[in-house]
Amino acid sequence: MLGCAAAAVGVTGIASALTREFANRSDFVRGVLPPGVPGAARIAALTFGLTLIWLSRSLALRRRRAWQLGVVLVVGLTVAHLAKGLDFEEATFGLLVLAALLRFRKRFDVPGDPLSARPLVVTVLACTTTAALVVVLDLRGFRGDRVEDLLAAVSLLLGFRALHLWLRPLTERVRQSAEERRLVRGLVRRHGDDSLAFFSLRRDKSYFFSPSHRSFVAYKVVGGCALVSGDPVGERAEIPELLAEFRRVCHSRGWRLALLSVRSELVPVARALGLRAIKIGDEAVVRPSTFSLEGRSIRKVRQSVTRLEREGYRFRVVAAGDVDDTLRAELERVSAVWRGSNVERGFSMAMDDHFSEPETFFAIAELDGSVGGFLHLVPSGQGYSLGAMRRDPDTPNGLMEFLIAELMAWAQARGAEEISLNFCVFSDLLVDTPRNPLEAFARAGLRAGDRLFQLERLLVFSRKFAPEWRPRYLCVERLSDLPLVGMAYLRVESLLTPPGPWARQRPISLAPRE
């Protein structure tokens, strides 16, 4: 309510700044105040009004620093109303909102980010210095319009940067204790029926446990968004209460809550908490017991397998705990050649270190002792989940088809019920005929970005193996959160980082799932 009231004060300030004052009041002010003050007050009213409208969202989120800045802005706007033309009506409205802000000040209990203090001081000093240069140049009669305009623009940008730092929500560094990792590993083994559960063991995720410590969510805070990676893991009866409590904690810290790539089974729970579920793609799952290279529909895969076998490639599976130094060097070589200058990607559906967990496996294609390509597999409740696939670009086409076909035979012999191959984002848009101009526009955009994100190529590749398609959802509290959550999602998956010197040098972690 106070956020709406602040926005209303801002709108009133803008309207007042853009309209004429009463002549008698304006003449009185101009006779009392020094020349130029009423005009400056008009500009101040416009500026404060715009800032209050922008600030209203943070006030609605009960942020303490937004309240502090809101009080200053309402006071400043009230003074500006009086100074520009004795606008008593607008000033009275501002004073009423100021009284309400002071009356309910304890409700604004969401803390700011203490880590923003140092960059905020630097930004404010830079902004003040730039603004002072503009004033000095003007006083000295300097007539360099372009220079003044440039300095004014820099001051404006620095001002926005300062406001962003001041209102930035609490950040959280990822911290995992050895005890937490031991507990999470045990819960994943007992309850990790989701194909994404094992990826909770990445070291860039924090954990939030239920009071009994029999369930948890894995998450990371990026840009003020708490991104939960996959379904919560643990006792099913605890999941609703666990998510409700985590949501309360998010609100207390000013975070937007988002559940990434959750299964359809969790959607009713999310909706019961007031979250909105949006389908973002489908997971391709293949059952080894029914997989076959027979038939016309899979003939291209069959031809690839036959060709690779004829050329001398052999298949073997090695547990990560059994990889020796020689094999590790080969795997890292293939990974480095395949990645090139691209960044390491993955968060919700990839491991950050594929050698650290001995329960994972490498499915390897070799020729005369040299690794041509490999798949990295993590265990899931019903079988295995593919976390990465790499090959040497000099190997023949069809190497990945060869690896997956051989993997199915190996998994069937081990009694695995399913293999989760890939997650295909926006597969409905890429496959189905657009139903309206908006879907047609989105489809064209996805295809245009295929060179960078390879969404359509991944979908075409996965369809070769006639998989079952299981929907995955993104859950948010408000549709208005989608832009910021979407940007945070892309950032955490490293999809916004360009290739080149920005590429992070980490061992084998580029997943095929993006």
Walk me through this protein's architecture.
There is one protein chain. By secondary structure, the protein is α+β, with helices and mostly antiparallel strands. The protein has three domains: 2-167, no CATH class; 178-269, no CATH class; 283-477, Aminopeptidase. The chain has helices at 2-18, 23-32, 37-60, 64-85, 88-103, 117-139, 145-167, 178-191, 239-252, 267-272, 299-310, 325-339, 399-413, 427-431, 437-448, 450-453, 455-463, 482-492; strands spanning 206-209, 215-222, 225-229, 233-234, 256-263, 276-286, 314-319, 361-367, 370-380, 383-391, 418-425, 468-476. Strands 1, 2, 3, 4, 5, 6, 7, 8, 9, 10, 11 and 12 form a twelve-stranded mixed sheet that branches. Strand 2 (215-222) and strand 3 form a beta hairpin. The longest helix is centred in the N-terminal third of the chain and has 24 residues, at 37-60. Mean pLDDT is 83; it is low at 501-514.
